[in-house]
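Can you please make up a protein's amino acid sequence together with its fold in token form to help me picture the idea?
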Amino acid sequence: MHTYPEKITQEEQLEEILSRPGDKVTEMVARLDGDIIFLGIGGKIGPSLALMAKRACEKAGVNKRIVGVSLFESAANQKKVADHGIETIHGNLLDMDFIKSLPALKNVFFLAGMKFGSLEDLSLTWAVNSFLPALVAEHFNQSRIVAFSTGCVYPLVPVETGGSLETDLPAPVGEYAQSCLGRERMFEYGSSKYKTPVSLIRLNYSVELRYGVLVDIALKVMNDQPVDLAMGYFNVMWQGDVNDFVLRSVEHASSPARVLNITGPETLSVREVATEFGKLFGKKVTFAGNEAGTALLSNSTLAYKLLGSPGVPVSLVIRWISQWMLGGGKLLGKPTHFEVRNGKY
């Protein structure tokens, strides 16, 4: 069981906590056969996810090849990943020849995706979210694949239901969400055609101190801006717990592909979370609009049965974020647009 500090003040401390492997991850990598490749490692989650895998291997005393593939935003970002002992490969995953050149390692984590700005280039959104998964499913057909998806493939549901289940039919709103369902279908096709074990991770939403739904709300409160109540309820999960769940989901990959909702257990209220940030910041909170009776919500009961419960409560993350922001901590400046109800990101 991890122990967590009351306050996080440095990025190095934050990144250590996000990538700290628990006993279950360590035990899993000790059992797992084969090496590991992370496709699209350069995003928000990839570096800490891969580092958790690396640290778990070291803790377990097993030697695995761990590879991270990305275009990388900069040479500095690539070096940061490489400095942790992760082998990096720079290249464009939409290039079929590049895909074919990648080592077909046994365990594949697919993190590539496009959301922000998806309206500006819909053809690229579909290429990244649907065409690329088809290429990956083909090249890595003898591997196990864990692929990030999103809870956005579900419809908005009445808040009192507690969220969509994996058995509910998808009903994606807007082309971004539709392209994400396309991603799932391509991996499902590969799983069916080649008997490739696949886990599809419908994540909704990952949070840490530099970005996420909680940071989006906190920024509104801190900057004396009205908090939009259009999407009045939401789910989140601490990114360190997300990393843990995602890594261990490789053992639950199957053919046909298995779908797993990964998020926190609570249905959170935007109004209540904003009010709490107001108390922590000493700010008066203002709101815009009213809560609708429906929201984008997921139910993670199945994941908890398979993987256990998340370790970090939202109440602690809220305190961490308030302290981080009051101390001038770095933010990524990448809003989630969680309040969008029409699918236009």
